[in-house]
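Quick one: structure for this chain?
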Amino acid sequence: MLTAQALAACLMLASNTYQVPPAIMIGIMQVEGGHIGQAAGPNFNGTYDLGPMQVNTRWVPQLAKLWHVNERTAHVWLRDDGCVNVHVAAWILKQKIAETGSYYRGIAYYHSATPGEGSRYANRVVSAMDHKGLVKHDAPLHYYEYAQR
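Got it. Here's what it folds into:
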């Protein structure tokens, strides 16, 4: 069993490894509300969301190839290993931030590329971050949109 402190250490290491702000990772984890061993779903498209960061099973085939394991093994690791789960979430978030050019849109795309759905999700994550004192209110708005350019 992974303690909360060990999971927090994994989250910080994942944030550092993929160069994504730990505050965003904390906000996502708060909004997702998942836990180790959880498979939530099915979603409308038949996929499930796994573990603390609720990583969607659509990533399993790609992860299995990357890790040189079968899909069942990748699924179990993603669902049952909290450190693996937060590292994969940071890896996905890094890709989405790079793809969109902003933290906010990266958060939105972590959840959904559908504009309304993604924006609602990103607003929830930012609100969760703010509630935990993790949002810098004196930063200009353009900072969040262009910080990754």
